[in-house]
Amino acid sequence: MILDSHVPDGPLSEKWEKHKFDLKLVNPANKRKYTVIVVGTGLAGGAAAASLSELGYDVLNFCIQDSPRRAHSIAAQGGINAAKNYPNDGDSAHRLFYDTIKGGDYRSREANVHRLAEVSNNIIDQCVAQGVPFAREYGGNLANRSFGGAQVSRTFYARGQTGQQLLLGAYGALMKQVDAGKVKMMPRREMLELVLVDGKAKGIVVRNLVTGEIERYSGHAVVIATGGYGNVFYLSTNAANSNVTASYRAYKRGAFFANPCYTQIHPTCIPVKGDLQSKLTLMSESLRNDGRVWVPKKSGDARSPNDIPDDERDYYLERRYPAFGNLVPRDVASRAAKKACDEGLGVGETKLAVYLDFRDAIKREGEAAIRAKYGNLFDMYEHITDENPYKVPMRIFPAVHYTMGGLWVDYNLMSTIPGLFVLGEANFSDHGANRLGASALMQGLADGYFVLPATIGGYLSSVSHKDRPETTVAEFDAAEKAASDRIEKLLGVNGTRTAVSFHRALGKIMWEHCGMARNMEGLARAISEIAALREEFWKDLKVVGGADEFSQGLERAGRVADFMEFAELMCRDALEREESCGGHFRDEHQTEDNEAKRDDEEFAHVAAWEYKEGADPVRHKEELNFENVKLTQRSYK
Amino acid sequence: MNLTLRVWRQKDASSEGQFETYEAQDISPDQSFLEMLDAVNEDLIVAGKAPIAFDHDCREGICGTCSLVIDGRAHGPDSGKTTCSLHMRRFSDGDNIVIEPFRAKAFPVVRDLVTDRSSFDRIIQSGGYISVKTGSAVEANAMPVPKENSDLAMDAAACIGCGACVAACPNASAMLFIGAKVSQMALLPQGQPEREQRVLKMVDTHDAEGFGNCTNEYECMKACPKEIDVANIARLNREYLKATITTRD
Ligand SMILES: Cc1cc2nc3c(=O)[nH]c(=O)nc-3n(C[C@H](O)[C@H](O)[C@H](O)COP(=O)(O)OP(=O)(O)OC[C@H]3O[C@@H](n4cnc5c(N)ncnc54)[C@H](O)[C@@H]3O)c2cc1C
Ligand code: FES
After folding, report:
1. Which pLDDT score, from 0 to 100, does residue A154 have?
2. Average pLDDT of B67-87?
3. Which of A214, A368, B117, B242 has its C-alpha lying 20 to 30 A from A199's C-alpha?
4. What pLDDT score was predicted for residue B45?
5. Is B51 in contact with A273 (Cβ distance < 8 A)?
6. Does residue A372 surpass a pLDDT of 80?
7. Cα(first)–Cα(last) distance of chain B, in Å?
């Protein structure tokens, strides 16, 4: 099968305008006859559901949480990029495009990324109009700050709660449409199956998490915006309910999964403490604007950090990357921290941490100024660690944070299944092998507010409004049966171990072998260990309670079961990609000074995996053509 | 440390609930309160007993999903914190801890410690937004906002919609929740066109959902994990009064 990205022709900066003109439109009077199912209420899903219904489509919107406002997007802290160039520091859509392509280590599609940069400014306008209280300067205009991987200041923020404020903006728009009867909101529902009729996506089967009932919904198209799969590592910065189930079920129905091995390990998280820890907490990248990262020069230096004089500290990012210093991209910063710890220079009890020090910034600007910028992050750090970061440097370590891989989509955000669209973190489209800070919020909102509302019309205009199946057709029966059989199977094992304990074990394997550095031997070992763990899971799992009740244990077991299969796909992908790029670092492929070594001859492509029942998955390629940027070794020196 | 828990158990909305006692053993002071409950649940499952249901998601104090009354206080003993941000170092070996759901007529129990807070969504539906269709916004800097107002709007917008204000209020009033949203919008130029309608509709929905009246007890502010100021209730009252005088049906 040839993967056609459907990128329109013409000059890069004119493609999107031209494409919007070329797309067929749905007659405004007919729009209400089309039902679109949107799974997810994060920035991508929430923005899409609101915008589609404003256009006139009938929308059904689902989420796991009790309210759409609680989607995982709420946790984003640092900010959102846009090429407004308010600081007059030389920014432009082209520069944002270029930084994103380069930051992604030349593994993303030029046309998609350019479109993202083009619509970035509209996002800020939209959010401000919704009442999102972005930070402002004294004159009343919007303020900006810098994020990693860029030398311009283009990040908009609302204290340390940018994701929350953007999501509440989208949630407001969504609630307005719910009130108008244009969106039917269905919280506490988990999508368990995608329903295809004649090869097209026409519905979903969900579990009502309160009653346990299996419910069926049909539509003319299905949109998946269910977020990332970082929780495959058990410990990550993702919310507890984040999962791969919706995407994985779609994959099993024929949607290709692209670049599953591309994972982002964020450099600044609070280090792990103890075995029973359930999640990791991010300290926003914005802290690297003022915080300086260092380790003692001497291994085993047991002095308190404040007693170590400057000439005995190694500010290793500033030393190795003088141009970008502490603001190198995430993958580079994470690997540098790992290297320092591998060399025995790590600090704290576990020696798996480095310092992020605000001493100089506080001296320069005063404690009040630093508090104004990062107060809530400093408080959060103190709550968790019981240490005061105004007085002692923070201790940080990399943690799983974001997944660049996701369901394969074309330029229209449609997957390989006609009528199935994928948005936000759940798709693979814009960040290549590494995402720059403050660009996930931008992408989720671009997809939801501006891209899908335009492209879905192109698809629906070719579908008759009568072409919506009843939920009583055989395809729905089969999908419901598949979902209930799986639930029965999970409940029927009746062994001795909890789903959480299996999840923890899976996370250990993944972190060890498919984390910050990977190699052939480790990945092969991981694949066999995962298979063994999976076997154990289906022999010894214990879930208490029935199918027809509120059961968080059953929810967890279902998600862990999917993670166990999906983890293997990630390892396979990592094994096949015999190069290092962005967040995917293969020990075998590095330069003399330990930087990632790409292989553009062999691997300048997207790997898109096709599920095969009872056989190994098949790896397809979408070649990436770079017409507007020159592929170079990424350098932040 | 070892602790004794008295936990509210209730099968579903229509069943009667009761307290049950559990032992939490070998708890480390570095564990979070929810991680302590995770540990209890692991033991319960292995013993074949139904684990304690409680809502949570982000586990870092921002999503507003977690919602427990701990020893009689919504979100527990520390001010300015959610349940998920509470750490066990706050407790001592041998402590007895009573854990209940957020209780209010407008928050019926779903199971054990999980409640249905969809009444908050319905309040927002009735007007807690600025109506602006996607694509119709003006250039962002065309509408400067004085920094002071913008900062006050952000203070109010920090509300996470957890419902602790309701759980803490002797009247189960949600005035702090509404006050926060009404204030945010009233402080911004974008919020002006719908200013009167918004406050009237939100207060109407609040009353219809079964939340009580505010009698200035200020328990809401003490329980609020985001420390939203009761000044927002004062602003709400002013806005409401102004709207009743100026709007004609
Ligand atoms: C701590 C943290 C901080 C971050 N900070 C930033 C930042 O500063 N800037 C930035 O750009 N990015 C940041 N990110 C990344 C960014 O927040 C996410 O990538 C983005 O919000 C994802 O949005 P989404 O809409 O794709 O998915 P999500 O927000 O994850 O939403 C997923 C939705 O799908 C629903 N769902 C999931 N599975 C199912 C299912 N099976 N059935 C039904 N519904 C389902 C969920 O209920 C939810 O509504 C951060 C991420 C984290 C973890
Ligand atoms: S779980 Fe999100 S606020 Fe507590």
Report:
1. 97
2. 96
3. A214
4. 98
5. no
6. yes
7. 62
Question: Please, where in chain A does CATH 3.90.700.10 lie?
Answer: 266-400
Size of interface A-B (CB pairs under 8 A): 217
For residue A145, give the DSSP letter.
B
Residue of A nearest to B83 (CA): A383
Spatial distance between the Cα atoms of A354 and A340, rounded to a whole number of angstroms: 8
Here the tokens at position A286 are 């914005």
CB A576 within 8 A of CB A607: yes
| Residue A51, SS3 per DSSP | helix
Q: Residue A611's CB: how many other CB atoms inside 10 A?
A: 18
Q: Where in chain B is the domain with CATH 1.10.1060.10?
A: 118-247
Q: Is A330 a catalytic residue?
A: yes
The tokens describing A264, both together, are 């982002």
Alpha-helical runs (H) found in B27-117: 33-46
Residue ranges of chain A assigned to CATH 1.20.58.100: 494-603
Mean pLDDT of A541-563: 97
Which of A77, A84, A130 is best to mutate for the B interface (most B CBs within 10 A)? A130
For the domain made up of A266-400, the CATH class stated in words is alpha beta
pLDDT value of position B248:
59
- Do B190 and A450 lie within an 8 Å CB cutoff? no
B35, A278: Cβ pair inside 8 Å?
yes
* Set of chain A residues whose Cβ sits within 8 Å of the Cβ of B114: 550
- CA dihedral in degrees (A525, A570, A239, A70; nearest 10)? -160
Q: In the CATH hierarchy, which top-level class contains the domain A494-603?
A: mainly alpha
Is residue B249 predicted with pLDDT exceeding 60? no
B124 within 8 A of A563, measured Cβ to Cβ? no
Higher pLDDT: A633 or A61? It is A61
Q: Is the pLDDT of residue A406 over 90?
A: yes
Contacts of B65 in chain A (CB under 8 A): 65-66, 70
Q: Name the DSSP class of A324.
A: T
Q: Are B195 and B217 in contact (CB under 8 A)?
A: no
Measuring CA to CA, how many Å separate B159 from each of A69, A78, A305, A453, A538? 11, 18, 37, 30, 43
- For residue A422, the one-letter residue type is V
**Of A330, A518, A572, A577, which one is the catalytic site residue?**
A330
Say if residue A99's pLDDT is above 70: yes
CB B236 within 8 A of CB B178: yes
Q: Is B144 on the interface with A (CB under 8 A)?
A: yes
From the list A563, A333, A439, the residue with the least C-alpha distance to A80 is: A439
Where along chain A do the CATH 3.50.50.60 domains lie? 12-262+404-460
Residue reference for tokens 């994928």: A422
pTM: 0.97
B3-111 fold: Ubiquitin-like (UB roll) (3.10.20)
**Which among A61, A62, A63, A156 is the best mutation to test ligand 1's pocket, defined by most ligand atoms within 8 Å of the CB?**
A63
DSSP characters over A539-587? HHB---S-SSS--HHHHHHHHHHHHHHHHHHHHHHHHH--S-BTTB-BT
Structural fold of domain A12-262+404-460: FAD/NAD(P)-binding domain (3.50.50)
Query: Which percentage of chain A shows pLDDT scores above 70?
Result: 100
CA of A438 to the centre of ligand 2 (A): 22
The class level of CATH for B118-247 reads mainly alpha
Edge-to-edge order in the sheet of strand A605-610: A406-407, A257-258, A605-610, A618-623
Q: Is the pLDDT of residue A160 over 90?
A: no
Q: Is B32 on the interface with A (CB under 8 A)?
A: yes
Q: How far is CA B130 from the centre of its chain?
A: 22
Q: Is A190 in the pocket of ligand 1 (CB under 6 A)?
A: yes
